[in-house]
Amino acid sequence: MLKSIAKASLLAAALTLPLSVSSLQAEEKKDFKVCWSIYVGWMPWGYLQDSGIMKKWADKYEIDVEIVQINDYVESINQYTAGEYDGCSMTNMDALSIPAGGGIDTTALIVGDYSNGNDGIILKDKTELADIKGQSVNLVELSVSHYLLARALDTVGLAEKDLTVINTSDADMIAAYATDDVTSVVTWNPLLSEIESQPNATKVFDSAGIPGEIIDVMMVNTETLADNPNFGKALVGAWYELMSVMSSDTDAGIAARTAMAEASGTDLAGYDAQLATTKMFYTPAEAVEFSKAAELPATMKFVAEFLYDKGILGEGAPSPEFVGVSFPDGSIYGDTNNVKLRFDPSYMQMAADGAL
Amino acid sequence: MRIINRKPSRVTALALGALPFVATVIVYSVASHYRRLENPADKLLPSLESMGAAFWRMAAIPDRRSGDLLLWVDTFDSLWRLGTGMAVSTVLALSFGIAVGFIPHARSALAPYLATFSLIPPITILPILFITFGLGELAKIALIVIGTAPVMIRSTAQAVLDIPREMIIKAETLGATVWQMVTRLVLPQVLPKLITALRLGLVPAWIFLISAEAIASTTGLGYRIFLVRRYLAMDVILPYVLWITLLAFLLDRLLLLLSRRAFRWHHAGGDAL
Hints:
Chain A is an alpha/beta fold. Chain A has 15 helices and 14 strands.
């Protein structure tokens, strides 16, 4: 009997090895994988892979980087958190709640953009934000839409208890808006502009009202980055090479934006319209400046308090300060012994200095 | 002795039955242990203790936001949707099943349509359901009914067709009316098979319930799982999955028990799974 127990546990160990081994190797390595999902500010990741710019920079640093598109945003973050990927594009809020809250030390390598109107609140047949009181609001619960709603309600002296939040899948948001039951939605682009174009819809608040709070970032594993600086350099170098092309109105810039537009299922005009409500940091200097600004710690405090209030800041989090967030000036919000999210502009600074 | 003739004793049978369960728990514990050695806050494979704590939190500690005991609210709402949906499906299966199986004109009119309709994957017509029934309870129940009723109607109709022709002729010879034949001959033969159809229908019904709740909802077991998936709270998801499995198992056994108690004649032939 004892023998068979020993055998069984050996077998169990063998079966589970593939599950546990991936995160064990954090030393120097050559092959890296990052993931992204479809969103206006992240379309460049797909283009980097397709155009060969990523390969060029990876070759320069003698490594191999694969950029993988994942169709489901939350799933891509979960995959990163599970250790399948070395980096992943996500918002500052989801980075704090999923990987950082899950104990994965994560660094904001490239601060790509912030939403400047890409997320919004739409009311049917009403025109004032205050009219939202007492309504049922359809949104993807616990997402940036939920955060935007909470921040918007603050501005008119309302709270979430003054309305009913109905968790609604983003895939069904447009169909949901078409039904009579639905009178208000909070969502993001391209769904937002699609719903706003309906005759009875009025956008009463959007993320331009809270500029710089919904930030889209390439997050990478801190340990992997520390052991492999070349990984960070290659990603940052490739990204800003594409940024300078993409932001220009040269043939190459238009070709790049057209390719990204097609990949996101729209055309150049539609993609440019989405870019107009996205504050892209086309130069590394802008991104560095944003990361060092005094507003960032205040934003992360709002975000942490929101997450804590909704009970999603990690298991048994005793306070919003449960997960520490470090900033470029060395200051830390939250628990200094549990710093899991780091804003470190040093790689973007290298790009700004032309040191890559 | 050949292996097909060797019967396990009662104790051995119990132990053999428990073995795959125990093995699963051991494999899970070992994998979870190694992942947590690396990262004590790992969310993917939480420890059994933290799952127990999360389950306790959902079941016994009022939610900070709403003051409800979430597990029970979710369970009640989900079971209500499932129960209503399956009740409607069962009534449809019984009435249409007997009509299609017993009355040739009804069969000609409905059988091809039902056969076609039952092949539509219900998830694909969700947007139509939303626009027709709104986003409330009605659309969720409608999804369960559309997903389960056609197949249940077909299997009930088949059960009516399987009634030996001789019995029907005998009833007619004795002067029975159609209604008497339905109540005295068809129903006793078909009801136990309806319960079997209901038990089999519960499997897709759970799938449709969870999918409907994932799409637009404020409560429910499926809602909770898809909500906490946003922050990878496997410590809540895994106990919920086990809880759903347990509920489904209990429902299935209760129906089997009901069938055994109420329709002894149907189970006289031997044991079924």
